[in-house]
Predict the 3D structure of the following.
Amino acid sequence: MKDAHRSFLIELDANKTAHSGRTLFEHLKGVHDLLRDWGNTDDVCAAGLFHSIYGTKTFKHQSLSDRTKLAAMIGDQAEFLVHCFSTRDRPFFKSIDDPVIRRQLMEIEAANLLEQGGNERTLRRLADMKLTAGAKAALNSGVV
């Protein structure tokens, strides 16, 4: 994680926002670290670091609404993934036609759910998708 990203998340109070029994910052960093360890691109890792910063259907807290500000911080492609993650049909993103974008979003979802100790059934289904070898191994073992 870049120092600028850490500072930006702290500026957005992610270190003070509750999320799944700890802080949003801890969760976001955990997702980022899984994606990094699985060999994902910098864009996917950055998107994972900010994946729920706009809020989601299940996590209603919106730390940021300015897409331009986030794009300036992490780049257009990573911001696009964050926006899709926040607004599209999770966990399988069936409304995304581009197979690369869809795979990247499912990779972020896999890290998100696994990092939280989430839904076993969904994790098993994600393990059957075209994800990185690292993601598949982690999903199949059920451990981070």
